[in-house]
Amino acid sequence: MPDRSRPDLDDDTVTALGKLSEALETVEQARGLLYGFHQLTGKADLLLQDAVQQLRDAGHTELADDLDRDLVGRNVIADRWTFQVVEDYDATYWSTFRAFDERARTELADGDRHVFEARMKQRERTSGHPRHEAGPALDG
Q1: Is the dihedral of CA 9, 11, 16, 17 positive or negative?
Q2: What DSSP designation does 3 have?
Q3: What is the span of the domain harbouring residue 19?
Q4: 137 phi, psi to nearest 5 deg
Q5: Backbone angles phi, psi at 77, to 5 degrees
Q6: Are residues 4 and 112 in contact, defined by beta-carbon separation less than 8 angstroms?
Q7: Rounded Cα distance, 132 and 125, in Å
Q8: Integer Cα distance of 81 and 41 in angstroms
Q9: pLDDT tens digits for 56-115?
Q10: Gap between the Cα atoms of 31 and 37, Å rounded
Q11: In a domain, 137, yes or no
Q12: Is residue 5 assigned to a domain?
């Protein structure tokens, strides 16, 4: 099994790659929250449509008409629904961030991922202790 901690790389490079990886992981979390925002906003709009119909059924036609006209299907951000916000985030930020992370790993670590974490594991595990193995056993 190759040594994932990459002893051939200098500490500063490994630390920088680790920080870049951490930044990308944070972007991935933000993206997940953005998808949550997208789904919750869509759900709210469907619930709003139900409320509009119930108000209309209860005889509150003017209020129902105003809500239907001014709020149902409304853009959430300048000329965009949430799916467009997600698409813009993916196209202009997330995909670019991922590409730079891959470029850095390719140029500096032969594409290896999580070298910083592999070094941390080497430092913090108890060598030879059960459940503290360096990596999965290779099947022969």
Answers
A1: positive
A2: -
A3: 11-124
A4: -70, 140
A5: -140, 140
A6: yes
A7: 6
A8: 9
A9: 999 999 999 999 999 999 999 999 999 999 999 999 999 999 999 999 999 999 888 989
A10: 10
A11: no
A12: no
| Cβ–Cβ under 8 Å, residues 116 and 21 | yes
Write out the two tokens for 36: 């949550």
**Measured distance CA(62)–CA(59) in Å, rounded:** 9
Residue 3 domain flag? no
Count of domains in the chain?
Answer: 1
* 3-state secondary structure at position 8: coil
Are residues 1 and 134 in contact, defined by beta-carbon separation less than 8 angstroms? Answer: yes
What tokens were used for 63?
A: 């209020």
Percent with pLDDT over 70 in the chain = 96
Q: Is there a domain that residue 140 lies in? A: no
**Alpha carbons 16 and 78: distance in angstroms, whole number:** 37
Q: Where are the alpha helices (DSSP H) in the chain?
A: 11-57, 61-70, 82-89, 95-109, 115-124
